[in-house]
Specification:
168 residues; mainly beta; 6-stranded antiparallel beta sheet; 3-stranded antiparallel beta sheet; 3 helices; 11% helix
Length: 168
């Protein structure tokens, strides 16, 4: 796999979307281009499991208890990360989006064939929290205690995640 073109995104709390206090969201552009059929296998090999294939919810949500990787298998979409007023980004087949626990994300629009593979470090079970006040209770501790991945979901133990994500 070629060296990825990576964009980092840092967010502060946005309404009731906490976002991660210090880890950036990472967008690996074209990291799995022309290898989309292998995305799930690569995630599993690097211990990102409990995978699913679907789309992205069309409302702001986040996972407070685990980090998430999204691999774009087919099509393209306009996503918003970081909550209302966060960053809008276009993701295309072969792109990888790594979201630290607490990072808001929402699908704004997508091509009809848009398909995503999601996975979690160590196959952690994930919760779904929305941009509502009652979902914010207790999540900062959950975000802080989310299992730290031992490997980058695409590039393994010496991948970009090891350099760009640091434990506090």
């Amino acid at each position: 796999m070629a060296n990825p073109d990576i964009t980092m995104y840092y967010f502060e709390q946005n309404r009731y979307i906490p976002n991660h206090p210090y880890l950036p969201a990472l967008h690996y552009k074209r990291a799995m281009e022309n290898k989309e059929e292998n995305i799930e296998k690569v995630f599993h090999f690097n211990n990102w499991k409990n995978s699913w294939t679907n789309g992205v919810f069309p409302y702001h949500h986040y996972h407070s208890n685990t980090h998430e990787v999204l691999g774009i298998k087919k099509g393209s979409a306009l996503l918003q990360i970081g909550g209302e007023g966060g960053s809008k980004l276009i993701v295309k087949n072969g792109d990888i989006l790594l979201l630290p626990a607490g990072t808001g994300h929402k699908k704004l629009s997508a091509s009809p064939d848009f398909e995503v593979i999601g996975a979690y470090p160590n196959g952690e079970a994930y919760n779904v929290k929305k941009d509502v006040e009652e979902d914010l209770k207790g999540v900062l501790e959950e975000i802080e205690n989310a299992v730290f991945p031992v490997a980058d979901p695409v590039y393994g133990e010496s991948g970009p995640l090891a350099k760009m994500w640091r434990r506090k």
